[in-house]
Here is the input.
Amino acid sequence: MKPDLPSPTSLIPALLAARTTTQTTRATKSAIHSTQDAVFSMARQVQHEESSLRDLTLLKSKLESRITRLRTQQSQQRAQPLAERAKQLIQTKQARIRVFDSETERLRETLDEFIKSDLAAMIAAEELGGPVAGEDIGIDEEMLDAGFSRSGKPGSRKVAVQDGRQRRIDEIWGTASGGDGGSEKDAAAAEVRDLVERLLAALAGENEGSVYINLDRDSAAARFLVRAKVAVFHPKDARRLRLVDFGRDLEG
Here is the structure.
């Protein structure tokens, strides 16, 4: 029995061939796209690896140079008399101390300028019932002179009687006001400076071994330092305050 095949003039073989060719073409195109994506991904990975290799090569070169210098210095130091080596160490330490003192003084001046130009007025405003320090940076001397309402709004801008104003300053800041003639801003600035100095001294171990200082009152200056994450209250006594030891956190 002969197989049932299409006649020689039938279009079926041509259609089958066309379908097979189309499928093969589509599969080839898909494979080409997948291969291209794989090539691009591999090229990016190669670039990354080459960049890492360059960085590691440079790092290796720097480390080798550093090791060579250290070995040379060590050899030179061993060849020096002990007294000369001790003298150099002392000179190096003294130079570091001078740099440290200079940088400390610069930072103190920067802090003092910030206190005088911005912080003191905001601290004084909070003490007088105004906005919390840091919320309103537009505090001026006239607003401090007039005071603030119970809702924290600036009072009427009228010139206060100096005696009454001085009593108000003395009641809030006491001896920190700096005597007669000082303003609320001056008194707040003096209090902030005194607080920072005491905190620094305590952190340096000058407070009978305790890093905490005792607060005379709940002051806006102390609250600001805590909000700024510069200082923290004692976990069991809010009348004691200490600076955050950032150096210890870095060492840990």
